[in-house]
Design brief:
heterodimer; A: 114 residues; mainly beta; six-stranded mixed β-sheet; four-stranded antiparallel β-sheet; 0% helix; globular; B: 117 residues; seven-stranded mixed β-sheet; 11 strands; 51% strand
Amino acid sequence: AQSVTQLDSHVSVSEGTPVLLRCNYSSSYSPSLFWYVQHPNKGLQLLLKYTSAATLVKGINGFEAEFKKSETSFHLTKPSAHMSDAAEYFCVVSDGTGGFKTIFGAGTRLFVKA
Amino acid sequence: GAVVSQHPSRVICKSGTSVKIECRSLDFQATTMFWYRQFPKKSLMLMATSNEGSKATYEQGVEKDKFLINHASLTLSTLTVTSAHPEDSSFYICSAKTSGGRGETQYFGPGTRLLVL
């Protein structure tokens, strides 16, 4: 069985400071992991994905995430927050078996203060 | 990256009417498409998975007679909300993926906001 837990429902940072959005997962198989961003009343945009290649994954807009199997984590980071980063972020796990089951985390709302 | 479109982006309808939402993959062939529902300030809930040319697989608790899904071609899937009621008001998002392998990415449409009066 798969599950994904986003440890913070809300994160607030000041512009120019680092961002850390935490995600833990469980999967019966080697998972594929994704981070998506959703701006208000918009669809989802893929930030980055991990598919068993390099454990440190670089995405768009300066975001990156590190897959840590021992900790079953896939935290999303960015060195310096920008006002435009304010949005909802979803961590997603998929094991690619059978019907390609995809499970979404509950989401983390990122607030960026000027 | 791959582009998925949805039409309409917003729809308002009267209770009891049916609404059709289209999901298209614009620059790739999507063997599998997914339909999600998102309630305000909530995560996405998978409603069903549709494979081209076959019947959709619905998640537990989703009424297949209420939410009709058709995936007639490799670039088009439709979701019809039949006899819509105010509780069906929601944000509906589709996604599409290409065939083959593990870890292939889902590409999401921009969503359709449905309001049932």
